[in-house]
From TrEMBL:
Subcellular localization: Cytoplasm, Cytosol
Keyword entries, A-Z: Bacterial flagellum biogenesis, Cell projection, Chaperone, Cilium, Cytoplasm, Flagellum
InterPro entries the record matches: FliT (IPR008622)
GO biological process: bacterial-type flagellum organization
Phylogenetic lineage: Bacteria, Pseudomonadati, Pseudomonadota, Betaproteobacteria, Nitrosomonadales
Keyword hit for Cytoplasm: yes
Principal subcellular localization: cytoplasm
Keyword Chaperone: yes
Protein name, entry field: Flagellar protein FliT
């Protein structure tokens, strides 16, 4: 079991590493790994301190870079998961059945 990072920057670095692994899992549609990694990111996110008062200027810049990388990974993850989620929604919510008359009308168009 890994120890939880203690400094805010190390938390962001670990979140960045996990988000990169999440993007890789999404690319190969490994949803179980993606889910497990997302839980780990949530634990780290909840451990982040409020505010930036204890960060130096260099750490603030590093934090900004790390957050941008995390957001880039998140965008890639969404590109892979949204189509899958749409298929799941379509499966769970099929269109209402139409009468035979309505089906003939639709084919006639």
């Amino acid at each position: 079991m890994r120890l939880m990072p203690t400094s805010p920057i190390s938390l962001y670095e670990e979140m960045n590493a996990l988000s990169s692994r999440m993007a890789a899992a999404a690319r190969i549609q490994d949803w179980e790994t993606l889910k497990m990694l997302a839980r780990s990111v949530a634990v780290l996110r909840n451990a982040l301190p409020d505010g930036d008062s204890q960060l130096t200027e260099a750490e603030l810049q590093q934090k900004t870079v790390l957050i941008q990388r995390i957001l880039d990974d998140d965008a890639e993850i969404r590109r892979h998961t949204e189509p899958w989620m749409e298929r799941v929604c379509d499966f769970l919510n099929p269109p209402p059945r139409r009468s035979k008359h309505a089906q003939r009308q639709a084919r006639a168009c």
